[in-house]
Design brief:
heterodimer; A: 212 residues; mainly alpha; 11 helices; 0% strand; B: 428 residues; Rossmann fold; 2 domains; 21% strand
Chain lengths: 212, 428
C-alpha cells in the first residue's frame, strides 16, 4: 500500500494514458471497421473473407506482432497505436458485418421504396439497426485491447505496461511484485471503467425502439 | 384545409377532396430479363392503369407480378420498354426522386423499428424538406385517417404495435407526402384473417376518400376481387391471362387458367363484390316508442307488414317486433335491443345475406351514417341485384393490357383514352 501511496501520481498518470490509448484506438478501429464492413457486407464472398481475416488476425500473438513492427515503425506511441487498432478492428469488423447483414432485406427494400438513397438507407436505417451489435464488438475489443496495451510498453508505448515490465525485470527486487500487482489491478480498473462508459453510451445511443 | 389543398396541389397537380387525385400509369412494352438465356420474368408487358383506380395484380408465385410492380417505381430496372406516369416517361429519371413521389407499402408495413411511429410516417416529408410543424400535423392527420389515435400512438415504436396497427402505420407512411400513386406488395399478407378483413374494409373507405391510383400485388383472388376496380391475372412471365373487372373475372373467365385460379364458389364471391347501397330498399312500418302496441298493430295491419320498426328520436332502430310479439306486449320497447339484424350501407351483400339468414324477419335493416335507419333489404331484392350484376351490363371497357410485341399505342387527344393499333407489317 505504501508503494501505491508513494507513486500515486505516477500510477494515476499511467492509468490515464492507458485508458486514453485504448479508448482512442477503439474509436479509430470502429471507424475503420465500419468502413470495411460497409464495403463487404453486401457480398457473400467478401463477408466470408472478412470473417476469415478476423479469425486469422486474432491468432497472431500480440507480442510477436509488436516486436515485428519495431523495424518499420520504431519505438513509442505509433507502433502501440497500430497494434492496438489492428486488434481492436477484428471483433468490431466481425460484429459490424454480422449486424449489417442481419438487417432484414425487407426493411432495406422498404427504405429504398420510399425514396431513400443508398447512402441514406445505410446511415439512417442499416447502421442504426446494426449499432447495438457493433457496440458489443466495441466492448469486446476494448477488453481485449486493454491487455494488449500493457504489452505496448515493450516498444516504450504509454500506459500501465511500463510498471509491469519494470517489475518483471527486477524480479525478487524491492517493490517488484508490488509494481506488477498494482499495474494489473490498474488495468482491470481501467477496463471496468471503459466498459461502463461504453455501456452508458449504449443506453444513450441505442434506439428505444430496438430495446423494447 | 385550404393550405392543405394547395400543398397537395403542388404534389400531384390536382385538387384534393372527392376528385381523383391519382394519375394514370402506362407500362409500354416492358420486359425484365435476368441473364441472357433464361425466359424473361416479365415479357413485353403493355399495361394501362387508369387514374384513380385500384388495380390488383394476381397470379401464382413466380409469375412476375411483384417484379412488374417494382418496375413501376423502378426498384427493379426494366431491361426494355418504358414506364409512363401521368404522361411523363420516368424510365430514365432519378429513381430515388421518382420513389418519393409514390407510396410504397410492403407486407407487415416494413416500418423502421428504431424510429417512432411519427418518425416513420414523417420520413418522406422530411426528405422532401417540409418544416417540422407541417410534418407533425400531417402525421396526426394520417394517423386519424388510418384509425389510430395520434396522442396514443405517435410516440410508440413499431414493436409496441400489433401486426394490424403496424400495417396501418405502413399505409400512413406511404400516404405521407400525398403521392398520386400507391404501390402495395401483399399488404395484408401478414395479419390474421379478421384483421385482414378490417384492413381491407378500411382500405376501401380510404380509397373512396382519396381516389389514388393504387396497384396491389396479391396471390389471394378473394382479396383481388374485393379491393380491385380492375384485376389482372398473370401467368408466368407476367403474361396477362385476363385484365377485367372483378365481376367479369368471376362470371366470365377468359380461359381455363383464370377459371382454375378463381376456383370454386365464383358465384358466392360475387356476393362479396356488391354492396348494400346498390340494392333497392323497401319501406318499413315505423313507430316511436311513445305509441301504444295497439296503434302499431293497426299500422302494421293496414300496410300488410309482419313487423314493426321502433325508432328513437335520432331515427336509430330500437327494436323490430313481429305482429305476434306486439299482441302480447303491453308497451313498445324503449331500450335499444341488441342483436338487431342491422347492416351498414357499405356492407357487402355477403354480410347482408348472413345477417338476414339469422334474423327472425328474414330481412335486414339498413342503417346509414350515425346509425340512422334507411330502409329494409330482403332476400328477393338481393337476388335481383345479383342477377343484374352477373349480366355485367353497363360496365366500362377494360383498360389496355397485352403481351403482344407488334403493337403501337394510340392516345386519343380529346379523351386521353389509349387504344391498341396492331402493326400489321410484322417488322420482326
Amino acid at each position: 500500500m505504501d508503494y501505491v501511496a508513494e507513486r500515486w501520481q505516477q500510477i494515476a498518470f499511467a492509468s490515464w494514458q492507458h485508458f486514453s490509448l485504448v479508448a482512442q484506438c477503439v474509436i479509430l478501429a470502429t471507424v475503420i471497421a465500419v468502413a470495411l464492413a460497409m464495403v463487404c457486407y453486401r457480398s457473400e464472398r467478401l463477408r466470408e473473407f472478412a470473417n476469415g481475416l478476423t479469425a486469422v488476425g486474432l491468432t497472431i500473438p500480440s507480442f510477436a506482432l509488436i516486436g515485428l513492427l519495431i523495424t518499420p515503425l520504431g519505438f513509442g506511441v505509433l507502433p502501440a497505436v497500430v497494434v492496438l487498432t489492428f486488434y481492436a478492428i477484428l471483433p468490431i469488423l466481425r460484429n459490424a458485418v454480422v449486424g449489417l447483414s442481419s438487417v432484414p432485406s425487407a426493411l432495406v427494400e422498404s427504405a429504398r421504396g420510399i425514396g431513400m438513397s443508398r447512402t441514406a438507407t445505410f446511415f439512417r436505417v442499416e447502421l442504426p439497426m446494426a449499432w447495438p451489435v457493433i457496440l458489443t464488438g466495441m466492448r469486446i475489443s476494448s477488453q481485449m485491447v486493454m491487455g494488449v496495451a500493457a504489452i505496448a510498453a515493450y516498444v516504450l508505448g504509454p500506459g500501465l505496461g511500463g510498471l509491469i515490465f519494470s517489475g518483471l525485470s527486477r524480479q525478487g527486487g524491492a517493490n517488484a511484485l508490488a509494481s506488477v500487482v498494482t499495474a494489473v489491478i490498474g488495468v482491470i480498473v481501467v477496463a471496468m471503467i471503459l466498459d461502463a462508459i461504453l455501456a452508458l453510451i449504449g443506453r444513450l445511443t441505442i434506439s428505444r425502439g430496438l430495446r423494447v | 384545409m385550404s393550405s392543405q389543398a394547395s400543398a397537395e396541389g403542388q404534389q400531384n397537380g390536382q385538387g384534393a377532396g372527392q376528385e381523383v387525385t391519382g394519375v394514370p400509369i402506362l407500362l409500354d412494352g416492358v420486359t425484365k430479363q435476368y441473364g441472357s438465356k433464361s425466359a424473361p420474368a416479365v415479357d413485353h408487358l403493355t399495361l394501362e392503369i387508369p387514374a384513380g383506380s385500384t388495380v390488383m395484380f394476381v397470379g401464382p408465385s413466380g409469375c412476375g407480378k411483384t417484379t412488374t410492380m417494382k418496375m413501376i417505381n423502378r426498384l427493379i430496372e426494366p431491361t426494355e420498354g418504358s414506364i409512363v406516369i401521368d404522361g411523363e416517361d420516368v424510365t430514365t429519371m432519378n429513381g430515388d426522386e421518382l420513389r418519393r413521389r409514390m407510396g410504397y407499402v410492403i407486407q407487415a408495413g416494413g416500418l423502421f423499428p428504431h424510429m417512432t411511429v411519427a418518425a416513420n410516417i414523417g420520413m418522406v416529408p422530411k426528405m422532401l424538406g417540409w418544416d417540422k410543424q407541417r410534418i407533425a400535423s400531417r402525421v396526426d392527420e394520417l394517423l386519424e385517417l388510418v384509425s389510430l389515435d395520434p396522442g396514443q400512438y405517435r410516440d410508440r415504436y413499431p414493436k409496441q404495435l400489433s401486426g394490424g396497427q403496424q400495417q396501418r402505420v405502413g399505409v400512413a407512411r406511404a400516404l405521407a407526402a400525398d403521392p398520386p400513386v400507391l404501390l402495395m406488395d401483399e399488404p395484408f399478407g401478414a395479419v390474421d384473417p379478421i384483421t385482414r378483413q378490417r384492413l381491407q374494409e378500411e382500405m376501401i373507405s380510404i380509397q373512396q376518400e382519396l381516389k389514388k391510383t393504387i396497384v396491389i400485388v396479391t396471390h389471394d383472388i378473394d382479396e383481388a376481387v374485393k379491393l380491385g376496380d380492375w384485376v389482372v391475372v398473370f401467368d408466368e412471365g407476367a403474361h396477362i391471362q385476363q385484365y377485367d373487372s372483378p365481376e367479369r373475372i368471376l362470371s366470365d373467365p377468359a380461359n381455363d387458367f383464370v377459371a382454375d385460379f378463381v376456383g370454386r364458389g365464383a358465384g358466392l364471391k360475387t356476393l362479396g363484390l356488391a354492396r348494400v347501397h346498390e340494392v333497392p330498399r323497401m319501406e318499413a312500418v315505423v313507430v316511436t316508442p311513445e305509441q301504444t302496441p295497439a296503434e302499431a298493430l293497426r299500422q302494421a295491419e293496414e300496410s300488410g307488414h309482419g313487423h314493426v320498426l321502433v325508432l328513437d328520436k335520432q331515427q336509430r332502430p330500437i327494436a323490430w317486433p313481429s305482429v305476434e310479439q306486439l299482441r302480447r306486449a303491453e308497451k313498445l320497447p324503449h331500450i335499444h335491443e341488441e342483436n338487431l339484424p342491422v347492416v351498414g350501407t357499405g356492407a357487402t351483400l355477403e354480410d347482408a345475406l348472413d345477417t338476414m339468414l339469422v334474423s327472425r324477419a328474414g330481412a335486414a335493416l339498413v342503417v346509414g351514417a350515425r346509425g340512422r335507419f334507411e330502409g329494409v333489404v330482403d332476400l328477393d331484392t338481393v337476388m335481383e341485384t345479383l342477377r343484374d350484376r352477373r349480366a355485367g351490363e353497363n360496365q366500362p371497357k377494360a383498360p389496355v393490357g397485352t403481351n403482344d410485341e407488334d403493337i403501337t399505342l394510340e392516345r386519343s387527344p380529346e379523351t386521353g383514352e389509349i387504344t391498341i393499333v396492331p402493326s400489321g407489317g410484322g417488322a420482326r
